[in-house]
Amino acid sequence: MKNRILIALLFITLSIALDFYFYEKLPCRVPTHFNARGMADGYGSQKIALLSFPLAQAFISALYIISIYTNQQPRYWRKKLKRNVNEDELKQLISEANHIIDWVLILTMIMFLYIQCETFLVGAGRQKQLKPEFIFVVIGLQIASVVYMLINQIRRQSQATKTKADDKISYTHHKPD
Length: 177
Fold this sequence. Notes:
This protein has helices spanning about 1-20, 45-70, 75-80, 85-125, 135-175, and strands at about 30-35, 40-45. By secondary structure, it is mostly helical. A two-stranded antiparallel sheet has the order 1-2. The model has no long low-confidence stretch (mean pLDDT about 80).
């Protein structure tokens, strides 16, 4: 848990560092919204833009820590699962879920840092538009992570069901001497 908190603090710190770097370079009005082509179509004050990105990182980090904490509670899993699981299965489920949460939320924090940097580059006049390709790649990786986890869960459940069915068959066909 301590490493996860440090990772969250790292992303918040990077966001604040970007604020300090771009503070003198940004005009009073900066882009706050971009269309699908990456062109700025909404503007706001410099102070709101500078404040919003670290706050967004802090909010994402808080969700991250809360989700990891909730996810590590066995009673949470026992309530959500529709079948009984032994301790080893439960530990495996928790570990897999934490891995996916780590991956998706770290990608989200990277995406927010990218959007912050691109927004400030456009606002400072260093580039004409936001480059949305990276955002689509990150979102694609997030979706792929969730799909991968679901496929693994389905595969593990079908193997566990098959193993239990094989155990029942071998038990019923076994005749004592």
